[in-house]
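Lecture 7, part 2: worked example. A protein chain together with flavin-adenine dinucleotide.
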Amino acid sequence: MAGEPEQPAGGRPPATGDVVVVGGGLTGLWTAVHAKLSDPAASVVLLEAGVCGGGASGRNGGFLMTAWSKFGSLAKIAGVADALAYSRAVEDAVGEIGEFCTEYAIEAEFNQAGWVWTATNTEQVGTWEQTSDALAAIGASPYRALSREETAAMTGSPVHLAGVFEAAAGTVNPARLVRGLRRVALQLGVAIRERTAVLGVESSRTRPTLVTSGGSIDAGTVVLATSAWTATLAPLDSQLVVLGSDVVATDPIAERLEALGLRRGISISDSRRTVHYYRVSEDGRLIFGKGGGGVAPGRIVGRRFERSARRAEEVRRHLRRIYPSLWDVPVPHDWRGAVDYSLSGLPFVGRLHGQERVLVAAGFSGNGLTPSYVAGRDLARMALGRDRVAVPEALGRTPGRRLPPEPLLFVGGEIVRRAVERKERAEDEGRVPSRAARAVASLDPTSFVDGGGTATKPSNLMARRCR
Ligand SMILES: Cc1cc2nc3c(=O)[nH]c(=O)nc-3n(C[C@H](O)[C@H](O)[C@H](O)COP(=O)(O)OP(=O)(O)OC[C@H]3O[C@@H](n4cnc5c(N)ncnc54)[C@H](O)[C@@H]3O)c2cc1C
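Predicted complex, written out as structure tokens:
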């Protein structure tokens, strides 16, 4: 991970804490930082099994997305008014993250250059229309429609056939952001203990007790910010599926990318289920990722989420399909991580089992960078006995639908995932996918944008295409 100057964060955990956060990713760190900023006298402890940023937060694509692309699912669960307020809060959060980085001197390469939501085959064209139309109907217009020529010019490749542009989105170097946040948390007085795994939470007493690899802690409130690792925790285990996402990075090729018309900081993603996402880094590399890279057996995040040479090669192949002129560019770097997809495509932010003193946030579904800031701010408020301000109450309720138990989820999930891949490969090649592939792929409950699961009614367009 790219880093800031390190300070030690080890040792035995303290015996007590007003707010004890589990997980040193962005959700946990934002919670701890906001708690300290709101109440400097509160004792805030953060426990991390590995190192801060070692999970998804330090290895993601760096897209600071808003929540507008999930508006349909959100409105269905929370109602239009709350969905609108939350989406506005997440949109504002992009700029607030940038301001925070400036104020605390975090060199996270923040850049608010916008996002292109695009189509790289005819089947994807118009995927954004239902969301865009629903937003227009309530007077929100985060997207500007692009002509085919504009889309190709902005993305640097004619493989992009159509799209919309959202100016509010940004990008960061995620590892720099999370390690910078760790430094700020330490400076504010958060007691961070890395390499300290929480083994259990005993919450039957008035104050919960955490059992850790370094001793027990008596907590005022516990905040579980363990993303994909939450997927084995009831009742969220029936709501979350863990999938891999794979990223590759080229050597620095700033001049080649500029010649294509690709601007630094602009983020691009296509409209497939196994979403492709890409951007140019500050040091002129093309960073290219692909979602949907394998279901976690037993929902357990194991070593298979560290690296996969086979998946990386697949991602390189897609990079070269979209940017054929870069055929000769070395793509030496690859990594992967675990993504916690929820059935609704939206995060759960609330009390575990309705318990007053155990809070949890998980299920960011591949869009967690900006929402984790908003969730962390509300979790800090709730942990300090205040009301949430931005995340709708509805996101604290688990929906009635349930995923099948293991090993059915793993076996079924892999069958569906492979059908999605077959279908999307056929679409890329201009072939009609087989009826079987379409039927099985349509069972996929995970989605990066609106249209995930049954939380949203599929658009006519999507229905017509049996997505
Ligand atoms: C490859 C990839 C690309 C992505 N790209 C984007 C993107 O471009 N934009 C976007 O918005 N989102 C993206 N995401 C999703 C985003 O990274 C996550 O939603 C976000 O980082 C979640 O942050 P978090 O703090 O909740 O979880 P994490 O960063 O995963 O942190 C959870 C932490 O909990 C710790 N932990 C787990 N169990 C325990 C325990 N028992 N005791 C102590 N600690 C524990 C883990 O070690 C881990 O460090 C991507 C994800 C991946 C994997």
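The chain is about 30% helix and 20% strand. The first strand starts at residue 16 and ends at 22. Keep this in mind for problem set question 3.
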